[in-house]
């Protein structure tokens, strides 16, 4: 059996590694000549960590993961701690620790595991066509590639998605802008082993430790889509949006490098039930695009890859039926993750200000139990729980 994989992001690389693990050959095609991940870092929660362990990257992941042992919420003006607790109960419950990692290091780890020279870069697929016993990808450069099945890991703007769904899926603006980047760890910003988040006015400023003595930081602000803001105005924009916020937030704005800070308008896509059509399967953001509010988009792609490989291991099912089995195992799970993130997004970003005010008040009563139990519930839904 030979699989064609389109896209060499988290989803494509995990799919290729997972299929190899169960004896299926893949060829990976990637549109760009060199992958430059959009975004500075991501948190890999225990459900994603278990998938990477299963795919043979246990030690490599630990080497790039940050020492995140506690979680804290702070008041935006006074920096008073609203709640602070250990993440150890999460580790005990799920059996793994979460690892925040730099995206570039995660991407390098995946590429190295698979083999960089085995990815065909600069190959942008424009369409796919299915025959009775094969599937063909057509590339912008006029070439084609055929295989027994095709896994579309071409991200949220997937060009293959429409041929699976039979209709286009519109991206939905979630109502906020996220800026993210990396800075050196400095305890005047936050404690080095904490995931610290300042909250107020429907906005967030968050810092998470990654390896190499760095914080992954992000700022969220509810804003209209399409504002004329870029790197040149970045520091002034953040200073304006976070005027009156506590000293650590002002330090962070002063310390960040606008040249390496990303500005992203956050979107998701209404979940859909169909993830496969014949010999073609969607995986990762092509199959489910979520807001990053519960940090699960990449973890879900890792889960998809593991489940897909498990489904394709069957000796008794045809390729089409194995892919339907993948869909059966994944569609509800990914729908739940997208909707859970959307709900969290609305609470955090003051879609209804009264609900957000209530959430801030609730944080003062929080001892960690409720937050950790919500995280554990999400994690337990993974395939290797
Ligand atoms: P992508 O990473 O988009 O990769 C798609 C690949 O396909 C790209 O390399 C692209 O060049 C290639 N491609 C596209 N079109 C074509 C084509 N036509 N032909 C060939 N190749 C093509 N997830 C988490 O788990 N934890 C987090 O903490 C987290 N934080 C996030 C924070 C932000 C601000 C954002 C925006 C997302 C976050 N995510 C997080 C989500 C995560 O980044 C995505 O879910 C993940 O990157 C999806 O991987 P993917 O491989 O499906 O898609």
TrEMBL record:
Keywords: FAD, Flavoprotein, Monooxygenase, NAD, Oxidoreductase, Purine metabolism. Residues 2-338 form the FAD-binding domain. Pathway: Purine metabolism; urate degradation. It catalyses: urate + NADH + O2 + H(+) = 5-hydroxyisourate + NAD(+) + H2O. Its cofactor is FAD. InterPro entries: FAD-bd, FAD-dep_Monooxygenase_BioMet, FAD/NAD-bd_sf, HpxO. It holds the Pfam family FAD_binding_3. It is an enzyme of class 1 (oxidoreductase). Gene3D superfamilies: FAD/NAD(P)-binding domain. Its EC number is 1.14.13.113. NCBIfam families: urate_HpxO. Belongs to the FAD-dependent urate hydroxylase family. PANTHER family: MONOOXYGENASE, PUTATIVE (AFU_ORTHOLOGUE AFUA_6G14510)-RELATED. This is FAD-dependent urate hydroxylase. It comes from Erwinia sorbitola. The gene is hpxO.
């Amino acid at each position: 059996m030979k699989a064609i994989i389109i896209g060499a992001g988290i989803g494509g690389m995990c799919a290729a590694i997972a299929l190899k693990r169960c004896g299926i050959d893949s060829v990976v095609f990637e549109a760009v000549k060199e992958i430059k991940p959009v975004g500075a870092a991501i948190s890999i929660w225990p459900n994603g960590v278990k998938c990477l362990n299963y795919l043979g990257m246990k030690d490599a992941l630990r080497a790039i993961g940050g020492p995140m042992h506690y979680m804290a919420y702070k008041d935006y003006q006074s920096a008073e701690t609203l709640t602070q607790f250990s993440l150890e109960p999460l580790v005990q419950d799920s059996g793994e620790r979460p690892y925040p990692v730099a995206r570039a290091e995660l991407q390098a780890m995946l590429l190295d595991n698979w083999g960089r020279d085995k990815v065909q870069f600069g190959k942008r697929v424009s369409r796919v066509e299915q025959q009775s016993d094969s599937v063909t990808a057509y590339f912008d450069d006029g070439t084609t590639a055929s295989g027994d099945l095709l896994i579309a890991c071409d991200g949220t703007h997937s060009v293959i998605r429409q041929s699976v769904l039979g209709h286009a899926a519109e991206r939905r603006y979630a109502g906020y802008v996220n800026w993210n980047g990396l800075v050196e760890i400095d305890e005047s910003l936050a404690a080095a082993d904490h995931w610290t988040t300042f909250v107020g006015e429907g906005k967030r400023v968050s810092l998470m430790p990654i390896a190499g003595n760095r914080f992954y930081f992000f700022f969220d602000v509810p804003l209209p889509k399409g504002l004329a803001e870029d790197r040149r105005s970045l520091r002034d924009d953040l200073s304006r949006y976070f005027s009156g916020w506590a000293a650590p937030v002002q330090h962070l704005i002063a310390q960040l490098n606008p040249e390496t800070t990303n500005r992203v308008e956050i979107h998701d896509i209404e979940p859909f039930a169909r993830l496969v059509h014949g010999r073609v399967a969607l995986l990762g953001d092509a199959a489910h695009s979520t807001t990053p509010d519960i940090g699960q988009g990449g973890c879900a792609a890792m889960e998809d890859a593991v489940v897909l490989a498990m489904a394709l291991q069957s000796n008794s099912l045809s390729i089409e039926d194995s892919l339907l089995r993948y869909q059966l195992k994944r569609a509800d799970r990914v729908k739940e993750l997208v909707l859970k993130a959307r709900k969290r997004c609305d609470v955090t970003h003051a879609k209804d200000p009264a609900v957000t005010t209530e959430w801030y008040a609730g944080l003062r009563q929080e001892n960690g139990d409720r937050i950790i139990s919500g995280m554990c519930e999400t994690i337990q839904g993974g395939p290797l729980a």
